[in-house]
Amino acid sequence: VYPAIVSDSDLWVEVMLDELPRSISWSGENLKLLDQRLLPEKEEYWLCERSDQVEDAIRQLVVRGAPAIGIAAAYGSLLGLNSSGSLDAMKCQFREQADQLEAARPTAVNLSWALARMCAVADGFDGSCPELLQRLTSEAQQIHEEDKQLCLQIGRHALPIVRQYPNVLTHCNAGSLAVSELGTALAPIYLAHESGVPLHVWVDETRPLFQGARLTAFELGRAGVPHTVITDSMAASVMAAGKVGMVIVGADRVAANGDVANKIGTLGLAVLAQHFDIPFYVACPGSTVDLSTSEGNQIQIEERAREEITGSDAGQLVPITSPVFNPAFDVTPAALITAIVTEQGVLKPPFNLSLEKAHG
Ligand code: MRU
């Protein structure tokens, strides 16, 4: 029997949050982003004072992970706004900045979701420019704060599942670095670890950008969670050996029928999990659920630069003449998913009904 989780103010939750890295901090005037490209070697920050710097940071994956790019874009949309001219001019500049930010990455719906909230504030506003800036700042801070609470709720809903299956496999990074704090897929893992569950996490390295090996292993290590990094191609044999009790991953967009877009490689894991009869869970906030997209084949999948796979001049991994295909995400059909955990609870199939009920 493990100690029960009691309330937000539990000291151990606070202590654990102190151990975890923060990807986004807002000073009141500028945005500080942990440069995730450099982890785990260096902890360096980008200071953004203009919207285009945030856009660049999102494109280059300085900040990444669906909820984190939504939060960063919300702050980015208001950076550098000229509040000393007319209200119309300020709204126009805001709209341009929001459009640029939205185009930075297409797959994670949290980006457009957060910007839609910011735009709703600007659209309906009729007052002075400094007041509009104040309202936009409050909205961005609220998006940021809400995300912290959502992560905790996701963690609490998924905690009994991790207690049942303490040998976990995860892919990419859906931890503290990918959100405001705590994470989505990693939230129940942190809560379970802190409440004394003897768990172990298999961390898929996540080719080609190694978000698992570089980021998930980094933050699990910081929090003292026992884990082992494997290459993506080892997942099948680790499962075959009976060493994985459950798989849990994050999501970039969940369609109305429960199909899930997430980091490339997620689909392969879901197929394997079905073969080995291992439950496969997705954890995400409601802002990742996109009921306007009826099924996964309508989700735009971002394709990224060939150099992410081939390496650079400094170290070529692929012949210069070989074509390369580099989709950043794939879509896992709802039929392969055991449950989707959101702040509303553990949603089970049929997902068209459970998602609509919880997030419609
Ligand atoms: O390309 P990335 O690193 O932004 O991809 C991130 C993922 O696919 C995550 O699993 C997803 O955004 C969920 S983060 C809570």
Q: Can you tell me about this structure?
A:
By secondary structure, the protein is an alpha/beta fold. The protein has helices spanning 11-19, 51-59, 66-76, 87-102, 109-123, 129-164, 187-194, 211-223, 235-240, 266-275, 307-310, 351-359, and strands spanning 24-26, 31-34, 45-48, 167-170, 200-204, 227-230, 246-249, 253-255, 260-263, 280-283, 289-290, 329-332, 339-342, 345-347. The chain is globular. The protein starts with 10 loop residues before the first helix and ends with a helix. Residues 1-6 have low confidence and may be disordered. The site of 5-S-methyl-1-O-phosphono-5-thio-D-ribulose (MRU) has 18 residues, from α3 and β9.
Blueprint (SSEs and pairs):
Blueprint: H1 11-19, E1 24-26, E2 31-34, E3 45-48, H2 51-59, H3 66-76, H4 87-102, H5 109-123, H6 129-164, E4 167-170, H7 187-194, E5 200-204, H8 211-223, E6 227-230, H9 235-240, E7 246-249, E8 253-255, E9 260-263, H10 266-275, E10 280-283, E11 289-290, H11 307-310, E12 329-332, E13 339-342, E14 345-347, H12 351-359
Parallel strand pairs: 4-5, 4-7, 5-6, 7-10, 8-11, 10-13
Antiparallel strand pairs: 1-2, 2-3, 8-9, 9-12, 13-14
5-S-methyl-1-O-phosphono-5-thio-D-ribulose (MRU) binds next to helix 3 and strand 9.
Q: What does the overall shape look like? A: globular
How are strands sequenced across the largest beta sheet?
6-5-4-7-10-13-14
Given helix and strand content, the structural type is: alpha/beta
Q: SSE order, as H and E?
A: HEEEHHHHHEHEHEHEEEHEEHEEEH
Uncertain runs with pLDDT below 50, 5 residues or more?
A: 1-6
Give average pLDDT, whole number. Answer: 95
- Taking the alpha carbons of the first and last residues, their distance comes to 36 Å
- Total beta strand runs: 14
Radius of gyration: 20 Å
Bound molecules: 5-S-methyl-1-O-phosphono-5-thio-D-ribulose
Please, how many helices?
Answer: 12
Main sheet attributes: strand count, strand direction, barrel closure: 7 strands, mixed
Strand content: 5-15%
Helix content range: 40-55%
